[in-house]
Design brief:
Helix content is 9%, strand content 36%. It has 288 residues and is mainly beta.
């Protein structure tokens, strides 16, 4: 969604960097850690020495694991409604399950008020609600897909060139009515601007959704899923293997929007997290 928040998101330079070099099996380092609701916690599995990929669970969902400098790490998406304090992941072994703790620090996100002209996008009809229910089930399947993959990307390039119009996590009101927090990053750009894959992946789902408009889901492996919404055109199909930088479609204003833009969501363990945490160093340098 476009809105009045127009200044570039320079705050990402404040996030702590994860200092780890990738082994040959990795194609990118770990994402940036920021253990807040909507952020990412990275937990070193210090007591797991096996070369076999460990299975780690958080809130009953498998988490992404990456081996960096010979050390396994769990990369955990933290839900926006998570309470501050100590939380635990479970590391499954053939003979036992161990727990490792990490701490979540509270964060307060800003509030955003939007005016939507299509009243059905604020108060859907009964028929609309049936459609929304069907689409929500399809999206849930996409976000909970688990694909075994060793070389899961740890950093993304920007999928589109434009102005960052709405950051992640905003507490939203549509026509003065409260709705769910903003679960992605909005990038405003002209209709027809190219949208390019920020990393390698497989197209798991495409479609025209009531709220999200023309949408593409990319599966990057191990529960790392990215979603691209409000597109004007979709130029890929389900099952396509996508290379980094490959064009997947163009910016539009389909679905519930106030102007043309890309809504970009990134999901870990079925949890939407701030895409900024996956930015490459080059992306951050270009925003300063």
């Amino acid at each position: 969604m476009s809105n009045t928040i127009s200044r570039p998101l320079r705050y990402m330079a404040l996030f702590a960097l994860t200092t780890a070099g990738a082994m040959a099996a990795d194609i990118a380092p770990l994402p940036r850690q920021n253990s807040v609701p909507g952020g990412i916690a990275i937990v070193a599995l210090t007591d797991y020495a096996s070369p076999n990929t460990p299975e780690v669970l958080y809130n009953g969902q498998r988490t992404l694991v990456k081996r960096v400098d010979g050390q396994w790490h769990a990369v955990i998406g933290i839900p926006l409604d998570t309470a501050a304090g100590e939380h635990f992941v479970e590391v499954k072994r053939h003979d036992r399950i161990s727990q490792l703790a990490f701490t979540v620090v509270d964060k307060e996100y800003k509030t955003q008020h939007l005016t939507v002209k299509n009243k059905r996008h604020v108060n859907p009809s009964a028929e609309d609600l049936e459609r929304i229910k069907r689409e929500s089930e399809l999206m849930q399947v996409a976000f909970t897909t688990w694909t075994e993959e060793d070389a899961v990307p740890g950093r993304f390039t920007l999928p589109v060139q434009g102005r960052f119009s709405s950051p992640f996590g905003l507490r939203r009101f549509f026509n003065k009515e409260p709705r769910k927090p903003h679960s992605g990053l909005d990038i405003a750009a002209k209709i027809g601007t190219a949208i390019n894959a920020p990393a390698a992946g497989t197209v798991s789902t495409t479609g025209d959704f009531f709220f999200n408009g023309n949408t593409v889901f990319l599966d990057h492996g191990q529960g790392l899923i990215s979603m691209y919404c409000h597109m004007n055109s979709i130029e890929v199909k389900k099952g396509d293997k996508i290379l980094p930088g490959q064009r997947i479609g163009t910016v539009g204003k389909s679905g519930r929007v106030t102007g043309p833009h890309l809504h970009w969501s990134v999901s870990l363990n079925n949890t939407r997290v701030d895409p900024v945490l996956f930015f490459t160093d080059e992306t951050i340098a270009g925003l300063k």
